[in-house]
Amino acid sequence: MLIDLHTHSNISDGTQRPRELIRAAAAAGVDVLALTDHDQTTGWEEARNAAADLGVGFVPGMEITCHASVGGSVHMLSYLHDPHYQPLLDVLDVTRTSRESRAQRIVGLLAEDYPISWELVQEHTQPGSTVGRPHIADALVSVGVVINRDEAFSSMLSSRSRYYVSHPAVDAVDAVRLVLEAGGVPVFAHPMASVRGRVVPAEYFEQLIEAGLAGLEIHHRDNSVTGKKFLTDLARKHDLIVTGSSDYHGAGKPNRLGENSTDPAMLQRILSAGTGSMASI
Ligand code: AMP
Ligand code: FE
Ligand code: FE
Ligand code: ZN
Q1: What is the pLDDT of residue 161?
Q2: What pTM was estimated for this model as a whole?
Q3: Are β-strands 73-79 and 57-67 bridged in parallel, bridged antiparallel, or unpaired?
Q4: Of 39, 59, 40, which Cα lies nearest the Cα of 48?
Q5: What is the mean pLDDT of residues 247-258?
Q6: Which of 36, 106, 140, 149 to mutate to test the pocket of ligand 1 (most atoms within 8 A of CB)?
Q7: Where does residue 76 rank: exposed (0-12), middle (13-18), buried (19+ CB within 10 A)?
Q8: How far is C-alpha 195 from the geometric centre of its chain's CA atoms?
Q9: Which of 260, 261, 211 is nearest to 240 (CA)?
């Protein structure tokens, strides 16, 4: 069983619409796929229908952009939550609105040195999708400033760049609580992704676990080898769910569908714990 529980469509910063993503998953031999766009769930319906047509199992999910009180950014996956739970929708609205004004500020700074405009970025963003630096990267690629997203992220879009602007987001401990209240299953995405920058300290994991964190995404290409060892010990100590996934973004990243997979017994635990929406397996 190939079970991939972390993927993006163009509802956020993936490059394929949900139906195309499901088609690609079927072609890659994925048996069960979760759609986990950043900060919204509007791709669920199309993905669920396509999955039913193509015989792929579907788990509704989302990746919530969060701030850690100890500093830094945390991505929290949520599976099977109620997509209409208003307190969660309220914080997601704030995040998406501030992502938009933050992207405009980044573009404003970049425009002083590069031939880029907010209109151009919008041409590379599906209307209604969660905007992020990848869309700005696509605009930069289109005018030949960089060759791909990766080059943009290692230069002008890096968090250390002088063009970088941050944005407010929900506190990660609050996100865990909100996901649980919405009947969802909170899983910490790529928790030891040191390649992306700072990771949170060990004590912070205990805070998230105390709040009800259900799982850790251990098998992810961005987690360091020592980080995976730490996470494996932590999962064993607290009997947490362990997942493995691709974090596929279509043509936006080299990550391949099904490059990491989740154990069927762990999927079963997610399916048993989630009560806010239905999987179609
Ligand atoms: P943002 O949410 O706007 O801060 O941008 C971060 C997003 O950019 C993450 O969700 C990643 O999927 C994506 N990203 C980060 N690094 C890279 C990279 N090197 N190449 C392509 N996409 C990236
Ligand atoms: Fe992304
Ligand atoms: Fe992420
Ligand atoms: Zn992701």
Answers
A1: 97
A2: 0.98
A3: antiparallel
A4: 59
A5: 98
A6: 149
A7: buried
A8: 16
A9: 211
